[in-house]
Design brief:
By secondary structure, the chain is α+β, with helices and mostly antiparallel strands. It contains 2 helices and 4 strands, in the order αββαββ. The protein is globular.
Length: about 60
Amino acid sequence: MLYVEKGSLADAMQMQPGDVILEVNGSEIGDVQIFTQTIRRGAARTFRVWHNGQSVKNVVPESL
C-alpha cells in the first residue's frame, strides 16, 4: 500500500505504507474489484499482510 488514510480500516488495523495485503478472509487477492467490494461491504474480517519482511495475520476488531 502506498499510503494509509487517517480513520480508514487500514489505519485502525495499524497497517503501514509499504505493507502488502496478501489475503482477505483467508483467500488470496485475485480480483481488485472483488477485494474493493469486500472492503466497502464491511465483510473483511481477517487480513494476511507482508509487513517488515514477514507475513502477519491481522483480525478486524469487532468494534469496526
